[in-house]
UniProtKB/TrEMBL annotation:
<dbReference type="GO" id="GO:0006979">
    <property type="term" value="P:response to oxidative stress"/>
</dbReference>
<dbReference type="InterPro" id="IPR050217">
    <property type="entry name" value="Peroxiredoxin"/>
</dbReference>
<keyword id="KW-0676">Redox-active center</keyword>
<keyword id="KW-0049">Antioxidant</keyword>
<feature type="disulfide bond" description="Alternate">
    <location>
        <begin position="211"/>
        <end position="217"/>
    </location>
</feature>
<dbReference type="GO" id="GO:0042744">
    <property type="term" value="P:hydrogen peroxide catabolic process"/>
</dbReference>
<dbReference type="InterPro" id="IPR045020">
    <property type="entry name" value="PRX_1cys"/>
</dbReference>
<dbReference type="GO" id="GO:0033554">
    <property type="term" value="P:cellular response to stress"/>
</dbReference>
<feature type="domain" description="Thioredoxin">
    <location>
        <begin position="16"/>
        <end position="171"/>
    </location>
</feature>
<feature type="region of interest" description="Disordered">
    <location>
        <begin position="176"/>
        <end position="204"/>
    </location>
</feature>
<protein>
    <recommendedName>
        <fullName>Peroxiredoxin</fullName>
        <ecNumber>1.11.1.24</ecNumber>
    </recommendedName>
</protein>
<feature type="binding site">
    <location>
        <position position="134"/>
    </location>
    <ligand>
        <name>substrate</name>
    </ligand>
</feature>
<dbReference type="InterPro" id="IPR036249">
    <property type="entry name" value="Thioredoxin-like_sf"/>
</dbReference>
<feature type="active site" description="Cysteine sulfenic acid (-SOH) intermediate">
    <location>
        <position position="57"/>
    </location>
</feature>
<comment type="subunit">
    <text>Homodecamer. Pentamer of dimers that assemble into a ring structure.</text>
</comment>
<dbReference type="InterPro" id="IPR024706">
    <property type="entry name" value="Peroxiredoxin_AhpC-typ"/>
</dbReference>
<dbReference type="InterPro" id="IPR000866">
    <property type="entry name" value="AhpC/TSA"/>
</dbReference>
């Protein structure tokens, strides 16, 4: 086995999967030292970006700030991360406020030693060995990973989709319903398939359900 292949195998790390407990961490941030445990009881959007003072990242941070109040109304906090220093983060935050008129109010992790990035698999060696990709981890109030999104360095993220994703996950938790493609609050949601023939028959005759077939029914989200 070549030295290069051996090195690649050593660098392979497991990514947290949906349903896993989110890896714990303690990190220096623009709001002081924080632990993931500090957010217990709230949902968290943990997201990484490649570097401070870069155009796409700047547009993303402004866009994240624009949905911060909507997320907070959903008991969801934002937590950014890159491998820049806390002083770089502070300078960038001040620059965004001065040049763009937007105050970034959420903490940003200064992950210089890549401890958090490695735990969450935020560095994609095929794309960059030094910068974190555009990863998004949705972590629920019990600190379980509920969704994972990865974007390449070249593509900024879509904030309405992140907001929609949190609403959909919380609706599933609260109502026991699944959400179809392009679902948004106010739309009908999908009811789990019936477990018995009798239940399927009852559902087919219940006007509260909109059924295409016995296994495919929707209803209003109460």
């Amino acid at each position: 086995m070549s030295e290069h292949v051996e090195q690649q195998e050593k660098e392979v790390v497991s990514l947290p999967r949906i349903g896993d407990q989110a890896p714990a961490f303690e990190a220096e941030t623009t709001h002081g030292t924080l632990q993931l445990e500090d957010f217990k009881g709230s949902w968290v959007i943990l997201f990484s970006h490649p570097a401070d003072f870069t155009p796409v990242c700047t547009t993303e941070f402004i866009a994240f700030q624009e949905i911060a109040d909507d997320l907070r109304a959903l008991n969801t906090e934002l937590l950014g991360l890159s491998v820049d220093s806390v002083h770089s983060h502070i300078a960038w935050v001040r620059n965004v406020k001065e040049k763009m008129g937007v105050e970034l109010t959420f903490p940003i992790i200064a992950d210089l030693n890549k401890d958090v990035a490695k735990k969450y698999g935020m560095i994609m060696p095929g794309e960059s060995t030094t910068e974190t990709s555009r990863a998004v981890f949705v972590i629920d109030d019990k600190q379980v990973v509920r969704a994972v999104i990865y974007y390449p360095l070249s593509t900024g993220r879509n904030m309405p989709e992140i907001l929609r994703l949190v609403k959909a996950l919380q609706t599933t938790d609260e109502k026991g319903l699944a959400t179809p493609a392009n679902w948004n609050p106010g739309d009908k949601a999908i009811v789990p398939p019936p477990k018995t023939q009798e239940e399927a028959e009852e559902r087919a005759n219940d006007p509260a359900y909109e059924c295409v077939d016995w296994y495919f029914c929707k209803k209003d989200v109460d």
